[in-house]
Amino acid sequence: MGLSSLIVSNNKKHFVVLFTGLVLIFKIALITAANEDSQIYTVHLGKRQHDDPDLVTESHHDILGPLLGSKEASRESMIYSYRHGFSGFAAKLTSSQARELSEHPDVVHVTRSKNMKLTTTRVNDYLGLTPTAPTGLLHETDMGSGVIIGIVDSGVWPDSPSFNDNGLGQIPRRWKGRCVSGEGFKASSCNRKLIGATYYSKGLKEMYNGMLNLTEKDEVMSPLDKIGHGTHCATTAAGSFVQDANYLGLAKGTARGTAPKARIASYKVCWNNIKCFTPDIIKAMDHAIRDGVDVLSLSVGDEIPLGFEVDRDDFAIAAFHAVMKGVPVVAAGGNDGPDTQTISNIAPWIITVAATTMDREFFTPITLGNNITLLGQEGVYTGKEVGFSEIINFEDLTKEDLTAGIAKGKILFSFIRGTLAENFGVAMQKVGAVGLIIAIKPTDSVVTEKADIPVAYVDYELGMDILLYMQTTKKPIAKISPTKTFVGKPSATKVAGFSSRGPNSISPAILKPDIAAPGSGILAAMPSWSGYEFLSGTSMATPIVAGIVALLKQNHPDWSPAAIRSALVTTARQTDPSGEPISAEGSPRKLADPFDYGGGLVNPMKVADPGLVYDMGENEYVHYLCSAGYNNTSISKLLGKIYTCPFPFPSMLDVNLPSITIPYLSKEITITRTVTNVGPVGSVYKAVIQQPQGINLQVSPETLEFSSNTTNRITFTVKVSTTHKANTDYHFGSLTWIDNGGHNVRIPLSVRTRLLHYKI
Question: By C-alpha distance, which of 238, 242, 261 is closest to 253?
Fold first, then answer.
């Protein structure tokens, strides 16, 4: 696994967002074990059969020992024993041993371990989380002072002022975790804000067969964050108040997390210039459940093709057990957008997060000689203004021209198709250029620049304006000013181009992502000279949602993870806070739909009072597993009890999600949903349908009456048919239950007509 974020350069002069998939600042390399016959496998045994963790571990050796010849051999082979949230272990095995172990009657499945990718001053005000407001979620929860957020990431930089514990009371008594010392990190660094910091490296060490050199990787064997990703995510979720936070003077203001008084527990599983290894991630989640975290936030993701939840996805199984113990798992959707079917973390028990922009942007003014000023929309430059200089077309220059110094003292302009060569700005600076203006398409990649000259990016439309000026002017000139911060109108919210998109590639009837939050240009703490930096990615959106989930957990401790997810989805915005429709970056740009942002942009002003929730528990998740075709044996082991799927198998369309997604509609079907009233007794709701184009929907009953405390759950049906005469793409709509108390319980509808099914 790797960091799910688009990392931003911390060059003192400027930074540029890098679009290269889920990992942005470092490259993930696949490491092949020296002994190919012995690799690390994760063995899942399902629900714990003992309350005593020592007995759970002993049962693991009882399984592995006979295979390897002795318990001593078992102890040498076993890397981790997962014994708190669920039962399982990681061990070094040959492929034949793994196959033999998979036949053991107590084993759910055996998977070869893999690596996963690591996918503020404004954002919370933008969402409406104002700490001075006399009402609202922050006020009602004392800003989250009683909840603990587990951050499973690259560690923590405890010296950041965002981890100050001013004004915080005692650590919650249920906390069972700890701070551990290590290289560059003292256990005493923890306080009433940062209450836990540990690291997990056994899987990583075994992968390198004892040849791991952390010094070469600029890493340390401790909870200390050498990347910055974990620190950034932790302080985005729950950083304390820090005045005058900024990056080189930009976005100056008071930094704070979404739940600024929540406690942070850091679990380091990702390493600088290396990877995040699944056995370490699972052990961290196992410990987090034991330690007493209220929410798990993981800004990590997998690559296509994804692993199946029960057969191949170790992370999804660990998340299942966390959710069954009442701990919501919030995970990044990934940064492989805007391509479709790239969304990761798609299990229906995970809250999967997409990323949007917000109403703060950074523009680099470009003034042409005709006094027209254009705004560069990518990159940040904080150096001195480049005064009016001659602007020339880079495409007109030859290598000989560059060598001869033709570019000296000039601004170079270019249309770029594809990816700009690495260090292009540095190369142009060396031949004397004083600035670069580059026209790009929405899907073009932008590389991190280390040059000291400004590199301003514009779209093709502005690029053509510049080109027209150059071609109609005898000696065209331009100047490039330092980047400025723009807040509020006219910056409308968009789903970020990098944010991975649905539909779900494994189970297309399960809508993913679930929800979206700001994830572009998020300012938070970093282990660097500047103290705070901008990062972009679904990694940054994830802790924002995790912070809101933490506040909800404190406000509604009896709500299940599914009820919390439902509240997020049904109260979400389809317009930004200024009322403008949310679009989706890409080529071409379009209005956002459920595959871009799930229910929409998270709305913390409404989420605590959704009116109705689409709740789910063990029975509903098993319904999903049966409908997905998992066998009774695997499901029984996962649950820790015998279970037999009904026959005929239930329909996946009836999984009680806060959405309806129909990938294959050819004839009339009937879908079932159940809602639970969490609002006033006596509430009456009426259905309002926005029909997808060419799709007929009929809801029954059309009115839901919750007349007493004994009638807080009502089941309704939706008949769906198509008028299309040919196969179509998806069309979108919504079903909203509205009462007189201001509740609008909206779920998205996504329907695709398939008169000819491609699965014959």
Answer: 242
What residues contact residue 129 under an 8 Å CB cut-off, 6+ apart? Answer: 136, 137, 138, 258, 548, 604
Confidence of residue 588 (pLDDT cuts 50, 70, 90): confident
Q: What is the pLDDT of residues 615-668, one digit of tens each?
A: 999 999 999 999 998 889 888 888 888 999 998 889 999 999 999 999 999 999
Is 467:366 a contact under the CB 8 Å cutoff? no
Q: Specify the 3-state DSSP secondary structure of 396.
A: helix
What is the mean pLDDT of the segment spanning 749-753? 97
> Measuring CA to CA, which residue among 191, 265, 182 is closest to residue 226?
182
Cis peptide before 348 (omega within 30 of 0): no
pLDDT digits (tens, 9 = 90+) for 354-409: 999 887 778 889 999 999 999 887 677 888 999 999 999 998 888 888 888 899 99
In the chain, the N- to C-terminal Cα span, in Å, equals: 35
CB neighbours of 526 closer than 8 A, spacing ≥ 6?
A: 10, 157, 160, 228, 231, 232, 532, 533, 535
Q: How far is the C-alpha of 546 from the C-alpha of 151, rounded, in Å?
A: 9
Which among 88, 585, 560, 588 is positioned nearest to 351, based on CA atoms? Answer: 560
228-277 pLDDT per residue, tens: 999 999 999 999 999 888 877 778 888 899 999 999 999 999 998 877 88
Dist CA 335 CA 651 (whole Å): 31
Tell me how many degrees the CA angle 136-714-706 measures, rounded to the nearest 5.
60
Q: Which residues pair with 182 in a beta bridge?
A: 185
Burial of 400 by CB count in 10 Å (0-12 exposed, 13-18 middle, 19+ buried)? exposed
What is the set of active-site residues? 153, 229, 539
Distance CA 105, CA 642 (A): 13
Count of CB atoms within 10 A of residue 647's CB?
7
The tokens describing 178, both together, are 């700890």
Global pTM value: 0.84
What span, in angstroms and rounded, lies between the C-alpha atoms of 241 and 246? Answer: 13
* β-strands 477-480, 386-393 pairing: antiparallel
